[in-house]
Amino acid sequence: MKKTLSIILTVCLMLSVFSAGIFSIPASAATSGTTGDCTWVLDGTVVTISGNGAMDYSKFPWGNEVTKAIIKEGVTKIGGYAFYECRNLTSVTIPDSVTSIGSWAFYNCAGLTNITISDSTTSIGSYAFSGCSNLTSVTIPESITSIGYAAFSGCGNLTLTIDEDNAYAINYAKTNGINYQTTQILRKLAFKGAALSLHHNLAINYKVDKALFETVGYTNPYVVFELDGKRTTVKSYYVEDDRYVFTFDNIAPNKMNDTISATLYATYNGVEYSSAVKEYSVAAYCYNILAKYSANEYAELRTLLVDLLHYGAQAQTYTKHNTDNLVNSNLTDAQLAWGTAQDPTLTTSLNTTYNTVENPIITWKGAGLNLKDSVAMRFKFLAEDISGLSLRITSDVGEWNFNQDKFVLQDGVYYLEFEGLNAGQMSEKVYLTMHKDGVAVSNTVCYSIESYAHNKQNSADTTLANLVKAMMKYGNSANAYVTDDSTDDNNDFVIKDPEADDFTNSYPVKR
Asked: From CA 55, how far away is CA 66, in angstroms rounded?
C-alpha cells in the first residue's frame, strides 16, 4: 500500500511539473547579473542585455515575466532557452551583432507578433520560435544558412518573408509547410571593421564592405562622425582590399575614452539610407584587441596598447579632461604588467647651429610640442619679411617643404607646426633650414620629439613630467612594434587586428 501511494504521489508530482512547464520559473528576485560574456539589467519587466560576446545557453536569470527585451549591439548570440515561455514578451530588439539564435530561445513567447532577423545572423536553432502562436511575420535574410528542427512549429499565423536569393530558407519553408513570401531584401549599410592610426595624433579608420557599392548598387557614400558635440562629415575614402575606408582623425590623446558616434549614409535608387549609429572609441579598440590577443606571441602589441592607454590617462590628467574616468582605469593586473615599467632614458638632439650660413636673415626662437597632438612639433622664428621664404625639413624618413602661407604670426613671432612624424618616430631627428629662392638663409636646426621630453622630464609641473615620460614609453613601444606593413603611404602608423579587423554590423534605417 505504501509503495502504491508513493508511486501515485510521484506521478502527481511529475504531472504538476509538466503542467507548469519544465523550465517555467517565477519572476527573478535579482535585478542585474551576467549571462555568458554579457550583463543584464531588469527594470520592472524590461530586461536589457549588453556586452561583447555570447549569452549563456539555458540561462534565464531575469525570470520569465519580462514584457520587453532590449539586446544591445555587441551581443553575438542569443542563448538557448534565453526567453523560454516568456509568454508576456511582446517586444524584442535583436541587433545586427547577433550571428545566431539558440535553440528554444523564444519558445512559447505567445506575445510576440513579428521578428526581423538581421543579415549578420546565419543560424536559427531548433524550436527557437516554436509555440509563438501570435507570431505573424518573421523576416529571413539571405545570410541565414541554418534553421533547426521545428524552429517555427506551432506558429499557425506565421508568414515568413524570405530574401528571394535564399534558396535554403525557401526550401525549408516548403518542406515544413510554412507560409512564406519572397522579396528582394536590400542589403543593409553597415560598418565592418576598424583600425587605429597613430600619426601626430590618433585616428580610427572605419571600414565598409566594398560590395555594398560595387555589387548591391549604393552610391554617394559618406560618414558623419560626432565627438563632444561636434559633427564632422567625411566624404573621402580609400580602397583597401575589399573595403572602403573612411578615416576620422585628429583625436587628441586626452580623448581616447570619449565616445565617437559614426553613421554611414548612401543612396539607393534615389533614396538615402543610413546605418544605425556606431559608437566607438580609441579605448574600446585597445581593450578589444588586448582581450583578444593575450598570448605572449603578441607581447609587443600588448605593450604598445597598454602604454598608449597610460599615455592617454596622463594626457587627461595634464589637461584636466574627464579625470574621473581615466582611460587606463579598466586595465587588469595582468594587462598592467604588459606595460613598460621602466622610465625611458632620454637624450636631446637639439643643435641650433647644426649647419651655419653667413648673415642669416631669420633667427630661430624656439622649438616645442603641441601637447594636444603629442607628436606635432612647433618651431618659432623671427623674420623681418617672410616673402619668398620656404622651410625645408629633412630626416631619415622623409622630406617636407612649407611655403610662407604655412607660417603663422603670433605676438611678433612666426611659428609653424610640423606633423610629419608618426608615434614610432619620436626619437627621429629632423633638420630645419629656411630657404629663399632656393638658397639657405638660416642656420640649420636639429631637433626631435625626444629632445622636448628630455627637457621636461624633471619639470616642477609633475603632470607635465609624467606626461612626457608616458609619451616616450608609448613612442618607444610603437617603434618596437613597427613592421614593414604597419605604415602607409602617408607615414601613418596603423595598428590592425592581427587576424581580422571586423567588428559588428550596424542596422540601417530609411532616413
From this structure: 17
